[in-house]
Amino acid sequence: MKVVIAGGSIAGLAAALTLDCIGHDVAIYERSPTPLRGQGGGVAVLRRMMAFLEQHGHHCRDMISVPTHRRRWIDRDGAVTRDEPEMLPFSSWDAVYRSLCSTLPPGRIHYGRSVTGFEQDAGGIDVHIDDQRIRADVLLAADGTGSSLRARLFPDYAPSFAGYIAWRGIVDEADFDAAAIATLVENMTLHKAPGELFMAFLIPALDGSLEPGTRRFNWLWYRNETDSDTLRRHLTDQAGQVHHASIHPGQLSDDSVATLRQLASERLPSVFSQLVLATRAPFIQAIFDALSPDFVEGRVALIGDAACTVRPHTASGTSKAARDAVSLAESLPADATDVVQRLAAWSAERRAEVTSLLEKGPQLAATFGLGRPL
Length: 374
Ligand SMILES: Cc1cc2nc3c(=O)[nH]c(=O)nc-3n(C[C@H](O)[C@H](O)[C@H](O)COP(=O)(O)OP(=O)(O)OC[C@H]3O[C@@H](n4cnc5c(N)ncnc54)[C@H](O)[C@@H]3O)c2cc1C
Prior knowledge:
This is FAD-binding domain-containing protein. This protein has 374 residues and is an alpha+beta fold. It has helices spanning 10-21, 47-56, 61-64, 93-103, 148-153, 178-181, 228-234, 254-267, 270-278, 317-331, 339-367; strands at 2-6, 25-30, 42-44, 66-67, 70-74, 80-85, 89-92, 109-111, 115-121, 124-129, 132-136, 138-141, 160-172, 187-193, 196-203, 216-224, 246-247, 283-291, 296-297, 300-302, 308-309. Strands 5, 6, 13, 14, 15, 16, 17, 18 and 21 form a 9-stranded mixed sheet that branches. It has a 6-stranded mixed sheet with strand order 8-2-1-12-20-19. Residues 6-12, 29-32, 36, 40, 43-44, 114-115, 142-145, 148, 166, 285, 304-306, 312, 315-319, 321 line the site of flavin-adenine dinucleotide (FAD).
């Protein structure tokens, strides 16, 4: 089968790998003109994605993650209030992305090409890629949480803002005196205050190095934001453009960066505020819940964040993308003829599988006092 994939990020790459593996003719169209880089910061790589990378990629847990040994909560003065074992493998979005890209046979990804529409009939689907039309059997929408293909299929549906934002940043371990960061190294360290949660952990260097001294701290600061004017101000970039859900590193307005720095100095334990103040290119993501009304419409299937976006506290976005990819390949063997029926069955099964994950996110957020009350 000819499978066109819109979006060459984690979900698109994972699906391309599994479908290519079983003999389908796969082509990814990614709107970014160049391979993606450094946009996502740190990720905890849970079991499914780690197993996926070990089976389909060139990497295993020890090669792409900085192990964490303890989960430690600290108060405003930096005193430890809770300390428990934690063995999460923290990696970076880049490391996961590179591992997937490097395994895909060459020529499968076309950069600088946007999927702009489609028309389907009984025999196939015509996919519009900029000015070109490509005939395919299946179109996979792996175009992320703000999916334009989902909007085309379900124009009345819109993701809902969860009521809080995440300020994020990455800063080199080498920028600090060893003594100043000693308590943060190889721990996941957290601080909670009403309506906010800060966390920091080490991730690999941009080139993948895990050598002490070369790694990076990833920090996230979740904060409730109920005021729509403030939210709009934070989502307005340096050039004055208002974004729907996120602003990439280096594009925050000077006003937002100044607000972030001031809040950090006033509200965070000093071991954390030093990370925020040293971060050259902080970024922001508003947290949205998205569950597409359906995961399939005829020959179009939605995967990854386009199908549903789980809360970041579940740390399961990449693992969910891996499961989407594996389950799709199981549902679409190379000799399948009843594609539409098979995709419909896949959709029903996947929706049932992700329900508990979708419920878990808001519950976890509520335990931290984040988001609207349940
Ligand atoms: C604050 C935060 C923390 C997170 N932490 C974790 C974590 O610890 N662990 C974890 O597993 N996950 C985490 N995630 C989630 C994880 O990053 C995503 O779930 C995962 O990357 C899957 O994304 P995706 O490939 O579906 O979409 P995206 O990464 O959004 O990619 C969509 C791609 O489609 C392209 N595109 C869009 N429209 C078109 C078009 N029309 N034509 C062609 N290309 C197009 C875009 O350029 C982009 O490359 C976190 C998310 C957030 C917001």
